[in-house]
Amino acid sequence: MRILHVEGGRHLYGGAFQVLHLLRGLAARGHQSTLACPRGCALAKAAAPVAEVHELTMRGDLDLAMVARLSRLIRAVQPDLVHLHSRIGADVMGGLAAWRCGVPVVHTRRVDNPERPWVVALKYRLYDRVVAISEGIGKVLLEEGVPVAKLRVVRSAVDLETYQQPCADRLLRAVLAAPRLGSPEPLLIGVVAQLIERKGHADLITALPPLVARYRGLRVLCFGQGPLAARLQEQIDQANLTGRVRLVGFRDDLAQLLPCLDLLVHPARMEGLGVALLQAAAAGVPIVATRVGGIPEAVRDGENGYLVPAGAVGALREAIDRLLSDPARRRAFGAAGQALMAREFSIDAMVEGNLAVYRELLDPARRPG
To answer: In sequence order, what are the beta bridge partners of 153?
Structure first.
């Protein structure tokens, strides 16, 4: 089988990392993949060993010329199908290009934010199958009017072995800007998310002052970048949390740092599933998160973490406090999270799930009745 994949993201995290897992899994199973991605993106280099990579100009949602560029590539590659992995213009322009060329097309939806009814009515006609990465996203799509016959759910995956390693103390000291980890021994909370409104960083910062007063060693590390960096730093300073909360930017060594955390907090207002949740669980880190989107599929309340309502600062603070004060429960939740990832979020399951969608689309005899 030959598949043309289109990914519009420029950074190798979240959805782009899922594409890389899929490309590697398809190559291992003998399938041929071609990847179209933005010029200079991090995924291009990482995918080169397992896919034929074409770096294209991709200017976003209004880049109408992308239709022509992708159409030329489709005609040159002659794939059995096209798989669109992101928005940023790749979804609509890629769908139009595949339609022009008469090639079946699959679109993966990774976010749960609703779209306008007229957008749904027009856009999803372009796709033969729509893959949701969580049951939560699937529910949103059905409510928006996407036909159930088109919809499939294939959960995102995590590479368990990558995150099941010891804490890298040297790296941790550098991130904390501390030459040594002294007394009191730090309690480390991590947040792994873009610095954007819907990730809820402001709610966590609001919840923190009573916690840092109670736990002298508490430190919060916010991994990620985004347009809210300056505003969040201002909030941190005004709350007298400077030195206790650090915006450390994007890191490509999370696999070595996540095992150092005592707790991951994900206070998102909206979330399709949350790859960072899968990574933290694989690293044996307990989680406090919000009960939105697909998060309850990755964080089982009372099993590998606690779930609270989005925006509920008091409930968020209480859940964090419960775990910070109970090391035994943190260890139990961490072990349960690793077991959950192995059971339901393996890379093999994700690759086979996508292959099942491809096969039923190309072979009518495989389609469900």
So the answer is: 132
* Distance between CA atoms of residues 19 and 34, nearest Å: 12
Strand order in the sheet with 32-38: 52-56, 32-38, 2-6, 81-84, 105-109, 129-132, 151-153
> Whose CA is closest to 310, among 219, 156, 204?
204
Task: Judge contact between 176 and 219, C-beta under 8 A.
Answer: yes
d(CA 244, CA 220): 6
Mean pLDDT of successive 10-residue segments in the chain (369 residues)? 93 86 97 96 95 92 89 97 87 93 95 82 92 93 92 94 90 78 78 96 98 95 96 97 94 93 97 93 98 95 98 98 98 97 94 96 68
Give every CB contact of residue 143 below 8 A, 6+ residues apart in sequence: none
Query: Mind giving me the DSSP string for 46-107?
Result: HHTTTSEEEEE----TT-THHHHHHHHHHHHH--SEEEE---TTHHHHHHHHHHHHT--EEE
Domains and CATH numbers, the chain: 2-157+346-366 (3.40.50.2000), 160-344 (3.40.50.2000)
Label the pairing between strands 218-223 and 287-290: unpaired
pTM for the model stands at: 0.83
Length of the chain: 369
Residues 83, 92: Cα–Cα separation, whole Å:
12
Burial classification of residue 226, based on how many CB atoms lie within 10 Å of its CB (0-12 exposed, 13-18 middle, 19 or more buried): middle
CA-CA distance, 189 to 266, in Å (whole number)? 10
The Cα–Cα gap between 92 and 122 comes to 10
Tokens of 239: 């709350």
Distance CA 65, CA 57 (A): 9
